[in-house]
Amino acid sequence: MLQKNYTASETHYLCDECSEAITNPLCPYCLTEEVEAWLTLYPNLKHEIKPHIDRYLHRGFMNFSTICIKCRNPSAFLCPYCFTNHVLISLKKINASKLILKEFFDFFNFDFDHTGYTHEAERLGVI
Predict the structure, then answer these.
(1) Where are the domains of the chain?
(2) Exposure of 52 by Cβ count < 10 A (0-12 exposed, 13-18 middle, 19+ buried)?
(3) Cβ count within 10 A of residue 50
(4) Which residues, in sequence order, are CB contacts of 111 under 8 Å at separation 6+?
(5) Closest to 68 in 3D by CA, of 27, 121, 126
(6) Which residues of 21-47 are buried (b: 16+ CB within 10 A; e: fewer)?
(7) What's the pLDDT tens digit per position in 10-63?
(8) What is the DSSP letter of 67?
(9) How do residues 90-126 score in pLDDT, each as one tens digit?
(10) How far apart are CA 30 and CA 19, in angstroms?
């Protein structure tokens, strides 16, 4: 039974990129593994995109992190949206084909509210 004056101290972890609450705590390292698994179908693209991801992850993030639901490490310092947005930008920089972009959106779309990169996907005609 709860006491009348019960208060819980609740910690909210914020994304180091956008400063929004991390509500889907999948760390960027686990997401990187998933992106790399997908890119085994495209070895040349995997070789091209990996340095972009590595540079991004080593920019000096990791102020405070919540526990990743996959690896159980305290490494979810970016929200999945910001991480996948960076991967999308990198794919566009290296001129990935529409097929690649479509697959990326099919597998890694964390724009649940359709207020971010979903508009870009619509503009590109990949969703």
Answers:
(1) 28-96
(2) middle
(3) 15
(4) 81, 117, 118
(5) 27
(6) ebeebbbbbbbbeebeebbeebeebee
(7) 567 899 999 999 999 999 999 999 999 999 999 999 999 999 999 998 887 656
(8) P
(9) 999 999 999 999 999 999 999 988 889 988 888 888 8
(10) 20
